Amino acid sequence: MPQDYTFENFSVTFPAEYVAQVEINRPKKLNAFTEPMFHSLGAIFNRLSQDPDVRAVILTGNGDRAFTAGLDVQSASEGGIIVNKGKDLDVARKATLLRRHVQEYQDAVSAIEKCEKPVIAVCHGISYGLAIDMTTCCDIRICAKDTRFSVREVEIGLAADVGTLSRLPQSGVSMSFVKDVALTARDFSAQEALQVGFVSGVYEDKKAAKGRALELATLISKKSPVAVQGTKEVINFSRDHTIADGLNYIKIWNASMVQTKDVEDSMLAGLKKTKPTFAKL
């Protein structure tokens, strides 16, 4: 493993050529996140985004019980910003500290979405709170049939502020479902997640789900990285803009990118019935 990918509470491995796997590695605490873990998460995905030896990423959790239980509430209550820095400040100054603090968390999680490489989330077991924040940043979501999802934040007295309330309404599910799960903090099953379109596949267990993710990541990694990364970029842009804006963006994008040698290599491989290989990007 490259030294750059050595992080406490995360395991980064490379199970296939051009495929990276990021595993949350705090199973005894149900992979719950402490503050330093947010910074590590952002650093990992920022590096993967620019690593020419990576073309697809799998995000999963270690252990049998949980993808992640979300924020480590006990750790946050004992060492959070209010306790350490803000308790004696007036409202405006305390709010400024909190706003900056939340921004750091948002930036760390958003690094998943901003990663140039496609990211496949594999959920299993308990997948609460931060699990939704992170997986709504991913390009493909699949899970094991034992997965229990929850937008958990109202259960601890706050509105989710790291991405769920902004990204879940953009994930293709109905607004009724979004408000149902966000307002109640109830669990919803893998089958319900599939039914509403939050995940694209449900598998027998974690092993099967990870196997499917590796198949998808390997397939993606064999395609032109110019084409794959451009496709992710334009889909995400088009999601957030009008059709006219999206058409204009892809026109400008491909004015340069379609000149790549990857197009020629792909066409020749199609004609010759061979499998093309592509240079690193």
Q: Globular, elongated, flat, extended or rod-shaped: what is the shape?
A: globular
Number of domains: 2
Pattern of helices and strands:
EEHEEHHHEEHEEHHEHEHHHH
CATH superfamily of the largest domain: 2-enoyl-CoA Hydratase, Chain A, domain 1
- In what range is the share of β-strand residues? 15-25%
Low-confidence stretches: none
Question: Main β-sheet, in a few words?
Answer: 6 strands, mixed
Sheet with most strands: strand arrangement: 1-2-3-5-7-10
Mean pLDDT: 93
Specify the structural class: alpha/beta
Give the end-to-end Cα distance, rounded to a whole number of Å: 20 Å
Query: How many beta-strand runs?
Result: 10
Q: Which CATH class of the largest domain applies here?
A: Alpha Beta
CATH topology-level fold name of the largest domain: 2-enoyl-CoA Hydratase, Chain A, domain 1
CATH architecture of the largest domain: Alpha-Beta Complex
Structure explained in plain terms:
- With 281 residues, the protein is an alpha/beta fold.
- It has 2 domains: 3-221, 2-enoyl-CoA Hydratase, Chain A, domain 1; 225-272, Orthogonal Bundle (Lyase 2-enoyl-coa Hydratase, Chain  A, domain 2), CATH 1.10.12.10.
- 49% of the residues lie in helices and 15% in strands.
- The protein contains 12 helices and 10 strands.
- The chain has helices spanning 35-50, 73-79, 81-86, 91-114, 130-135, 164-167, 175-184, 190-196, 206-221, 225-239, 243-257, 261-272; strands at residues 10-16, 19-24, 56-61, 66-68, 119-123, 126-128, 140-144, 148-150, 188-189, 201-203.
- The strands form 2 sheets. Strands 1-2-3-5-7-10 form a 6-stranded mixed β-sheet, with helices on both faces. Strands 4-6-8-9 form a 4-stranded mixed β-sheet.
- A hairpin with a 2-residue loop joins strand 1 and strand 2 (19-24).
- Helix 1 (35-50) packs parallel to helix 4 (91-114) and helix 10 (225-239) packs antiparallel against helix 11.
- The longest helix has 24 residues, at 91-114.
- The relative contact order is 0.11.
- The model has no long low-confidence stretch (mean pLDDT 93).
